[in-house]
Write a structure and sequence with these properties.
The protein is mainly α. Helices cover about 75% and strands about 0% of the residues.
Amino acid sequence: MNWLSPDSKFMQAWNNLTDAIVINILMLVTSLPIVTIGAALSAGQTATRKMLIGQGHVARNYFAAFKEDFARATILWVVYLLVGAGLAYSWVVLQITPLLIPKIALTILWVIGFEWVFALQARFDNPPARTMANAYIFGVSYFPATLALAAVDAVYFGLFIYLWFKLPQLLFLLVVLGYGSMLSLHVPIQEYVLRKYTGQAFSTHVQEDAWSVKDHRHDGE
């Protein structure tokens, strides 16, 4: 039964799934104060990348990245939280026809930046303002990748809403799998784009100590 071998594709996929659930739970727990969600998103990116290349321990990688990126990721999150709250208010309360086009445009810009900003914070060592600017550079320059990332998120949140109203008994399973599991789909897309800036092709065959939380960070764009 080769499929039960530790090196089999099945067991690798199973281990990745269980590790993704652990990452999701860690993200949920460390996001409880709300203001720490940015650091959780950034740490989730790092932990997922290291999980997929088979490096280190998931929880250790997560908390190391959470601590390292906390300050800058929190600044980025506060900006996106405030702007996102303003956009949500405009969609729910400000039902004014002349505002429709600006609201759509700003929402698209918010999504483009959000899809990249915490991945870049997890991957490069830049001040928040530059990370935010780079997020839009990558988001627009590699728009097909941005669409793919947004599609993954749209499917997840669409499924969440569907289960909420139609099959609430399955909602807990989706929460356990959570956004942390979605990062397993995000990270390969992002790393494919970032490989020319990091100098590293994304691979599942990397030496244990080849990538660290802070090593191999570059300025990016």
